[in-house]
Design goal:
2 copies of one chain form a homodimer.
Chain A lengths: L2 E6 L7 H16 L3 E6 L5 H12 L5 H25 L4 E3 L7 E3 L8 E4 L2 H8 L3 E5 L2 E3 L5 E3 L4 H12 L7 E7 L20 E3 H9 L7 H10 L3 E5 L7 E4 L12 E17 L4 H11 L5 E8 L2 E9 L3 H15 L3 E14 L9 H11 L6 E5 L2 E7 L3 H11 L4 H9 L1
Parallel strand pairs in A: 1-2, 1-9, 2-6, 3-6, 9-11, 10-12
Antiparallel strand pairs in A: 4-5, 7-8, 11-12, 13-15, 13-16, 14-15, 16-18, 17-18
Helix pairs in contact in A: 1-3, 2-3, 5-7, 6-7, 8-9, 10-11
Chain lengths: ~425, ~425
């Protein structure tokens, strides 16, 4: 008897009818003979409404109380889901923040899971119940409620699956969402994009970080570390979605599995910064303290000095400028320049590890299309190029074509 | 340093502004040098909306999950209240169902408190925090969330006050509501009704049961059993309300402190029922199983048989008829009659214990006003008369006048 963990996001449980449809999925899996654990997010816009209420009650509400407030959203969904399952004739039980057994550190608003005590879950599953868990939350050692931050409910689902020993052949963690699965590119930009049958954890982390918003990278990393197979699929459709699994030999046949666009970036350049030990940490500690995520950091030595550039999503550019200016005043040197109107196109695939020439192919096609490349960064399974913003969508299409990611080609290679 | 427990009902915390005003009360008491514990209900119509959602999700949702669902309403209020207190510069901490420490029996939807472990509350109070507790809920021994049923948040407040040893001179339990306090009669029916400065627990239980809806009788009984002084007062006004306290000698000066009307009753009569041992229990167990509360039970022996009558609020009359019909079929005898269009007027006061002639006074004034009395029931501190429904409001006014409960007279007697 396999264990199936099913996670339903906020859109999937946005109203009574949708909750009932999700409950039907859970009961169907149960009738197929599986142990079933359901993880739910808060309904629709509940979380936003609660945050708005908090802002009206207090100018700067403590994060500890925001966690208590927000956690009630998932708790409501859990109770309603358990009712809907019960109504379909299956026995169910909802858990609360405490009985769920997820113990976290005390970092309210962005807590990390320390341990999971699954004995209550196991007891209920063994009794034949469909267990419904509120996502996104845990408790500290002393019983305070915490929330897990972005991607929290995905992480809850994968973490519980890991704690219950779900691995290939013993079960699966299904992430139900409002898209079919993971695509070779965003279909809104690339009409020929095809759905991937399988993708590796490492590829998914890169694609997720680049904005393929079906699954949070943190949950994917959890899945990778514990070998939990993850199935991303549509909550209202029957057909399968995308399996996220360990790398398998046949994946090497495909060098690039997907590409992605980050459409609106700004870039900060620092020229002539004294290159002493610790200079970089002054800058990036200041940026981190401001809560800004920067990307694509490049440094080039130039005599006694260094030139550094990095990019950031445009809405954070003003804050970033302030932070860098403060850092440079402390360092006592270096001149800042700011550039706006950039985009980033990336190609991702574990096959790059064994295939040479991926970078060259990408650069050649962008060049032939007349698209200038401002910056280049690479990781073992990703190549990213910074391009002018107005060329972003075209660059994505060019890269998609360059690696033969059209639906027909992909199917031939992936399934051949 | 005294302990002040402040309970705010759903109307008092219905929106962000009202929550902020309640928070100001809590902080003011704190600045006066008191330990302060706040108990909150769910915001406004939250509970009704949740029940509606539950009905749309499941035809017959299990009470266990309804408890989980409803408990989130008070938890939300608790988090928001703690934020608002924090925003006013006082340190606060909200508790959840578990950390609150109220352990109940497992009767979901109508749980009884078994014990209170107040160590967490004491720790937070000793640290100088204003503690905010969600009302209406507890947990079972095995950690399932329960709700306390009607009057739940009132009961939470008084029970915690009792557990913390609040008694005369060591503190008070303040019940904030949308009326000024307890009146000699409902001012909507009796314009001359006056606010009572003090009332005894026993009187309050009777008045509360008769529909003076400011405080649930269950909470009053808890207060009586543990000697917790209760102050019923308006949440948006500064002046004091009504203190509910132990009987004191001066209370005997007043025979009747208040009167009340139950405006719409039906009456079931059973004639010629075989009066064997256990006959009555067959009837009333069937009625209890149907979840109906009946009142004013009267039995008169008549030869080998008995005549029984009792009243019920009109909306429950149809269910009651069915239950009684079933019981009579099992008993094998007795004829049921049904009467509608009745009301009940009652006079309440511990002074009746030592004053004779209260009943006679009441009957004489009702008679002089041309109001016929159908049934009479009495307890040690209450006299109730069933009258025709159309005479209900007039009967209330007559009884109020008969005992000199007009505002001027009352003040003279109570405070003289």
């Amino acid at each position: 008897m396999a264990l199936v963990v099913q996670k339903f996001g906020g859109t999937s449980v946005a109203d009574a009818d949708r909750i009932r449809r999700c409950a039907q999925r859970a009961v169907a899996s149960h009738l197929d003979g599986h142990h079933v654990l359901v993880v739910v997010s808060a309904m629709g816009h509940t979380t936003d409404e609660m945050l708005e209420l908090a802002r009206r009650v207090a100018t700067s509400p403590p994060q500890r109380e925001i966690d208590v407030l927000l956690s009630t959203g998932e708790q409501m969904s859990a109770a309603l889901m358990a009712m809907a399952i019960d109504d379909l004739g299956a026995e169910s039980a909802s858990l609360n923040a405490r009985s769920l057994g997820i113990v976290t550190d005390p970092v309210h608003g962005n807590a990390r899971i320390r341990s999971i005590d699954a004995h209550r879950i196991v007891r209920d599953l063994d009794a034949g119940r469909i267990v419904v868990a509120p996502g996104f939350q845990g408790v500290t050692d002393d019983g305070s409620i915490t929330t897990l931050g972005r991607g929290g409910s995905d992480t809850t689902a994968v973490a519980i699956a890991a704690a219950l020993g779900v691995a290939a052949k013993t079960g699966v963690c299904e992430i139900y969402t409002d898209v079919d699965g993971v695509y070779t590119a965003d279909p809104r930009h690339v009409p020929a994009a095809g759905k991937l049958e399988r993708v590796s954890y490492d590829e998914m982390v890169e694609l997720a970080a680049l904005g393929a918003g079906v699954l949070h990278p943190r949950a994917v990393m959890f899945g990778k570390n514990f070998g939990v197979p993850i199935h991303v699929r549509h909550s209202q459709r029957a057909e399968g979605g995308t399996m996220i699994v360990n790398e398998t030999p046949d994946m090497e046949r495909v060098s690039v599995v997907g590409c992605a666009l980050t459409p609106d970036l700004g870039r900060i350049g620092i020229r002539g910064m004294p290159n002493r030990p610790g200079t970089q940490s002054i800058i990036f500690e200041r940026i981190e303290a401001a809560g800004i995520l920067v990307d694509d950091i490049i440094q080039i030595q130039s005599g006694e000095c260094a030139d550094v550039t990095f990019t950031v999503e445009s809405p954070h550019l003003a804050d970033l400028k302030l932070a860098v200016q403060e850092a440079l005043e402390r360092i006592g040197g270096g001149e800042m320049s700011v550039e706006v109107g950039l985009a980033k196109v990336s190609a991702v695939g574990v096959g790059m590890r064994t295939h040479t020439g991926v970078a060259a192919t990408m650069f050649r096609h962008l060049g032939e299309a007349g698209i200038n490349i401002a910056n280049i960064t690479t990781s073992e399974i990703k190549i990213s190029c910074i391009v002018p913003q107005e060329h972003g969508p075209k660059a994505l299409q060019v890269v998609h074509d360059a690696f033969g990611l059209g639906a027909a080609k992909k199917d031939a290679v992936r399934e051949g």
